[in-house]
Specification:
5-stranded mixed β-sheet; mainly beta; 22-stranded antiparallel β-barrel; globular; single chain
Length: 622
């Protein structure tokens, strides 16, 4: 049945291609340049993987302070959980769970977050901290929808979100600021600036968000600072270093169904500090390019119940891409990563404290990826990675794909790829279910994509996929004792569609839709997900609206309490450019006052309103 469906879809899109070509001739080719799929700049049509790119313009016009909500709206098949006005939280009641095509994990350990190509996750628990990623620092975001373990190793089992940070590209300086205020005393402030003089460049930003929250004891506040400096050693070699620190406080109001007054009246607070620093040296010669990147991530978590942890995630990445002969691109790389830390409870043992774990592990890998371009018509891509983990040993990760540029405007792509996810320190060593004999989770992905650009105003993309997961880590009862075991499997398949239409210079539309069939219910993975947006600009005014439709979202998959929800959310915004430097806006969210929840027991806010001002100033040196 599945094969017949795929063949039918292929036949339909091939027929549509012929029809589309007869409509109009394309005058502008707008293939995004990406690095996530190959670690070198290449057009999206020449990468067999399914890649989405969120541009700087889309990020800035959203007026969001966090980057994940922007991604969730723009990328089919990707879903991010939320729980309130702002702030995702950590530990019990946390949101910010990321799922791509039903793969993500709870907490998220199966979709890898990258910052300029560096892995980002808590060293002990193995998941990212979504509140650490702010929109003001982002140049663009590249999302691989499907396994990318051949280049990025463990955690890239379901996909990759690569956040590429800003840098000042032209001599001169730029200044940006934003302030907004909205419902429930929600305040957001941002200031950033860039500077470049000859070979030196710098960028810095500061963000502050806070809210009282729409429920009692759901307040949140965060301060985030970022600085980046770069220097052109030669016209072919550049160096850059950056540092980021985020400090946030969040409280968990608890599930709405809890009525115990002793629980409700207690503030369940969490105090977190996260930081990262990195140093990169990149080369860009005629025949080859690559980089050496050194990174260090660190954090400290303090929770009201006495839990305390310090963690690190550090490593080095070395890779080079070269052309061995005409049409060839060969990437060879090496990664080394160490991660771990200490987890304890300072209130346990009558206040004497108890250490749950103090462990550091490492993994290292070598990989090769070869791509050959046959006269810009057929691009073949294949490679393999060998990963060694200090606990379970070696894992092999192959990948193979092909792109067929049927015409200048039509591309057909197919890929078979393997993804994997190593067990975390928590799963191996911490608390009762721990099992030090765990092996990595595995996934095989099969997908077929069709990209069509009708003209410079209309384009669309259609993808069908099938995922087979094995060795999934589940907690089962073993002799009456809970234990983590490699016993889980899953089989998902689905389809994704997106289209962009620019009617004229004033009016544009965007639509994306995804369908996911799940053999077994999965948290944070809607069966049907659609997002429609429209934007109209006239003179100094811009009006925009968007509609999100979610159907078949599981919020609980407990054996005796399976819950599935449907909801629809309508938002709108109006902006006015006072002059070339200052604009103001007002936005309304959940205008239909839909009652819904994404995290079980955490109802989302009803109608809420924001207003704000944006300031942008740039001066380029002649």
């Amino acid at each position: 049945m599945k094969k017949h469906t795929v063949f039918l879809i292929c036949e339909i899109i091939m027929s549509f291609s012929s029809f589309a070509q007869s409509i109009t001739d394309d005058t502008i080719q707008l293939n995004e340049v990406v690095i996530s799929g190959t670690k070198t700049e290449i057009t999206r049509n020449n990468v067999p993987l399914t890649i989405s790119v969120i541009s700087k313009t889309e990020i800035e016009t959203s007026n969001e302070s966090a980057i994940l909500p922007v991604i969730s709206e723009q990328v089919p098949g990707l879903f991010v959980t939320e729980r309130g006005m702002t702030g995702f939280g950590v530990s019990t009641g946390a949101a910010g769970q990321i799922s791509i095509r039903g793969v993500g994990g709870s907490p998220n350990t199966q979709v890898l977050m990258l910052l300029d190509g560096h892995p980002q996750y808590m060293g002990i628990m193995g998941h990212p901290l979504p509140d650490s990623y702010v929109a003001s620092d982002v140049e663009r975001v590249e999302i691989i929808r499907g396994p990318a373990s051949i280049l990025y190793g463990s955690g890239a089992m379901g996909g990759v979100i690569n956040i590429i940070t800003k840098k000042q590209k032209t001599d001169g300086y730029s200044l940006n600021a934003r302030a907004s205020y909205g419902s429930y005393n929600t305040q957001k402030y941002m200031a950033s600036g860039g500077y470049r003089h000859k070979k030196f460049s710098a960028f810095a930003s500061y963000n502050h968000d806070q809210t009282d929250g729409h429920r009692v004891n759901s307040d949140f506040k965060i301060d985030n600072g970022y600085i980046k400096a770069g220097y052109d050693i030669t016209d072919k070699i550049t160096a850059s270093a950056d540092f980021n620190i985020a400090k946030f406080y969040t409280s968990d109001p608890g599930p709405s169904y809890v009525t115990d007054s002793s629980y409700i009246n207690q503030i369940h607070w969490i105090d977190i500090m996260r930081g990262k620093t990195s140093l990169s040296v990149e080369n860009n010669f005629k025949k080859f390019n690559g980089a050496v990147k050194i990174f260090h991530n660190f954090g400290e978590h303090v929770i009201y119940d006495g839990f305390h942890s310090k963690d690190i995630n550090s490593g080095v990445m070395i890779y080079q891409t070269g052309s061995l002969f005409k049409g060839n691109l060969t990437t060879i790389g090496f990664d080394y990563n160490t991660f771990g830390g200490i987890a304890e409870n300072t209130k346990a043992m009558n206040g004497e404290g108890m250490v749950f774990g103090d462990t550091t592990l490492y993994d290292m890998a070598g990989y090769a990826l070869i791509q050959h371009n046959f006269k810009d018509k057929i691009i073949v891509n294949a490679g393999i990675r060998s990963e060694y983990h200090s606990v379970y040993g070696n894992e092999w990760i192959p990948q193979a794909g092909i792109c067929y540029n049927m015409t200048e405007k039509s591309t057909l792509k197919a890929v078979v790829s393997k993804g994997f996810r190593s067990p975390t320190i928590r799963e191996l060593y911490l608390w009762a279910p721990a099992n030090e004999n765990l092996l990595p989770e595995k996934l095989m992905n099969y997908e077929l994509s069709y990209l069509q650009r009708i003209n410079d105003k209309i384009n669309f993309e259609l993808t069908v996929f099938h995922n087979e997961g094995s060795n999934m880590i589940k907690t089962i009862m073993d002799g009456g004792i809970p234990k983590n075991m490699n016993t889980g499997t899953f089989s998902n398949y689905g389809a994704e569609f997106l289209t962009n239409m620019r009617v004229n210079k004033n009016l544009s539309f965007n639509l994306n839709y995804s369908y996911l069939y799940m053999g077994n219910p999965i948290i944070a993975s809607p069966e049907h997900q659609a997002f429609f947006s429209a934007r109209y600009k006239v003179k100094k005014f811009t009006f925009s609206t968007n509609l999100q439709v979610i159907n078949g979202l599981y919020t609980s998959v407990a054996q005796d309490d399976v819950r599935k929800v449907n909801y629809l959310v309508l938002n709108a915004k109006a902006a006015y450019n006072i002059n070339n430097f200052i604009s103001i806006y007002i936005s309304g969210n959940n205008l239909l006052n839909s009652e819904y929840e994404i995290n079980y027991g955490y109802p989302m806010p009803g109608i809420n309103v924001f207003g704000g001002v944006n300031i942008q100033f740039r001066k380029n040196k002649s």
